[in-house]
What does this fold into?
Amino acid sequence: MRQDQAILFFVRDEQLEEAIKPLPRLGNSLVGYSAINRAICARLTSLRDRVDIVLSTDGSGSSVETDYLLKQKGRTFGERITHAVEATFALGYKQVVVIGNDSPEITPEDIETGFSLLKSGTGVAAAPTYDGGAFLIALDRDHFNHQTFLQLPWQTPRLFEALCSQLSAISLSVMRADYDSWYSGAAQRVLIGLLDIALCPSILTRTTRFTIPSARRKASTRIFLTAPPLFFPSTATASR
It folds into this structure.
């Protein structure tokens, strides 16, 4: 552990996710979840000098190199994400921002805003998706409650509202799309933008596949390409 802050990148096993949520062929390119996950981490490279990345996956390995690897545990999504947050705090981090790969337009600025809210004394912050979910959840270790977090309505359109009402989360003033399928025009435009990062030779040569024999794996992805910000016009203060 190099820092007090960590990004928790919470994703499915790459091969399993391909079976559950297939990806389209884009022109002559066959994009895979390994490329998507690498590209999202590469987009966050500007944060790496002061923020670690912890990868939590339910598979046997990943093509993404991060500071720590955590194997997911639990039967339900709520159990797996709650365990992943607790395991990240157990590594010694004081503040954690949780993201996934279904909202790949996330920017370093989104994550920095989450950490800034935590630094200002906020216990929980969240950023909404258009369908009622959350594409980012920022958590302070001293305010984290296992049972309340576990019982949130995960994977439903009520998640963001529950975060705000049950955890008194402060909302980031940005809203983004999350994609349940990659076959819409908007989703495919996002994938094309990610391919520009994922297929960069510098990333391909620095990325190797590894398994998860333990909870630790040091890494150094260092390529960065910004995505255009998409700011939600109003700010909600989430004390309800």
